[in-house]
Amino acid sequence: MIQFEQVTKAYPNGQVALENIDLAIDDSEFVFIVGSSGAGKSTLLKLITREISPTSGSILYNGEDIRKIPPDKLPILRRRVGTVFQDFKLLFTRTVFENVAVPLEVRSLKDSEVERRVSSVLEKVGLLEKANDFPVQLSGGEVQRTAIARAIVGQPEVLLADEPTGDLDPKTAESVVKVLEKINKEDKTTVIMATHNAQIVNHFKKRVVVLKKGKIEKDEKEGKYESD
Question: pLDDT of 164-191, one tens digit each?
Answer without folding.
Answer: 998 889 999 999 999 999 999 999 999 9
